[in-house]
Amino acid sequence: MINKPFPATAFKYIIYECMLPFKWAFLMCVLLVFAENGVYNALNWFFARLIESLKQGVSAQNLSSALWIIAAIAVLDIINVFLPKQVLMYRQKKFYFPLQEKIYGRALSYIFGHSVEYIINKQTGTLLAKTNQINSQQSTFSMLINGFWGRLSDIILKIVLLMTINFWLGVLFVVCAVAVVIANYYANKSSDRLSGMQSKAFSIYNGWLVDVISNIRLVKQFNRSDYEEKRLSVLLLQNIHLRAKSILVWFISYNTESCFVHFCSFGVLTFAVYLWSKSLINVGDIVFVLITLNGGFMWLMELCILYREFANNLAYIQSGLEPFAKIHEIQDTENAVDLKISKAEIEFRDVCFAYRNGEQIFKDFNLKIAAGEKIGIVGLSGNGKTTLINLLQRAYDISGGQILIDGQNIAEVTQNSLHKNIAVIAQDTNLFHRTIAENIAYGADKISIRKVKSAAKLACADRFIEKIPEKYNSVVGEKGCKLSGGEKQRIAIARAIYENRPILILDEATSSLDSEAEKTVADAINNLLGTQTVLAIAHRLSTLKQMDRIVYLEQGKIVEEGTFRELAKIKNGKFAKLWKMQKIKERK
């Protein structure tokens, strides 16, 4: 199933991703807010009617009328106490919470769908910040439902009630309201650009801040706290400057709007008094006009503020949409099927690949790996070793040829099923901030402790695990910071043993270890090697002695091929020279 990108604009995102999937809940929220405003305005209407009734003087009829009005006010007042809370509860439970769950889930799924190249080129903090940015839609809908619609529906009800008092009184209120909206639009137009700049600056600052915090050990080790503080302070000052400028623009526009709104209020009130002088309306109507002006035009003033906040919020969401609106670089084909492995035979057939900068790595490259065969891949840096295993995992799409597993083109199978059949032990093993058992059985629905211990024993990891007080329940720290490099590698090997996938990739699994740790890890790898098809990249050639075959890559081509012993004996051979140099270094 193709994971569709999010809309590229904040407005479309709000409509298509947030509103339409929950259209009935959204509609109910709108209706409940309208009902809430209806009750409030009905209360004001009955208050005005009560004053008019009392003005008529004391009589049995007037007393009866006043008591009925008081009863209606009492009922409406009770409703007015409980209804807003019910509206809030409904909005949270039926709309906001399910929406937040949907967006977070979809956003996370979409990030996972991006290629490795795209993700490593982004700061972790930036991706996290942008995920939080697009999840600020709750405040956006609060502004729409409670803010804009709440104020607008209240104003509509007030206009209807004013028109029932006097048509022209209602018309004048409408004219003033339209004038305020137009004035508001032009007054806030200049703040739109500032809103976008402010959101962008905040997003960059937040990304840098998370990046620094996640690498705080490195910052302290290199004594670069002052450097990072100065670097962040530049962005912070820029953000503060934009905020200050934005507040100044708002201050000017708000005060201009306030003066205009008060002018309109005095105009409507003067017209109401004029109508009263002509006996066209009564005192109760004047009271209702006063209440309406106090609420209605105040709402119009708040609409000015809401407009600015809404523009800021949309700009904030807009700046967060980039990684979610960008189409995935590597996609499953429309008719992709699950990969079915019976033998785990791998073939690179006439493969062509070049990076986006135009650097050609492979051209008509061919390599066939038999089922269960252990292949060592050797060569100097920059000759295609890591690229080859990345292509097998479909981290990049090739420009020509095919990569086949048991005769199935990996470009035509689902990425999930491809990755499910490949285990990787990399040079830099990053573990999760979880227990050792959880890291070994990573992704398992139910952890089998017996199986975890068995995998740890084969990986030679049980030696150090048993010495830790909490053993398999020990939390390894962020990225496994509580463990040494060799210990982390043995956990990674135990994980590969636990998963028992048909294809195993060893990517420089021992290059960063000292000699003692390397020997222990090498023993663990030998325990791991079974019936799987193995591709191993190694800087230290001694770790490849157990391989069935070794291929030497140079400029994306196989220039030597054979067993370790065969290649080591070739006079002036590339592998033999490399092996000789390493033995000399080891003696020193």
Write a brief caption for the model.
The chain has 588 residues and is an alpha/beta fold.
Strand count: 10
Which class do the helix and strand fractions yield? alpha/beta
Level-2 CATH architecture of the largest domain: Up-down Bundle
Strand content: 5-15%
Individual helix count? 21
Residue windows where pLDDT falls under 50 for at least 5 positions: none
**CATH superfamily grouping of the largest domain:** ABC transporter type 1, transmembrane domain
What does this structure look like?
The longest helix has 54 residues, at 60-113. This protein has two domains: 10-325, ABC transporter transmembrane region fold, CATH 1.20.1560.10; 338-415 and 541-588, Rossmann fold, CATH 3.40.50.300. The strands form two sheets. A six-stranded mixed sheet has the order 6-7-8-3-9-10, sandwiched between helices. With 588 residues, the chain is an alpha/beta fold. The chain is built from 21 helices and ten strands. The two termini are 56 Å apart. Helix content is 63%, strand content 10%. The model has no long low-confidence stretch (mean pLDDT 77).
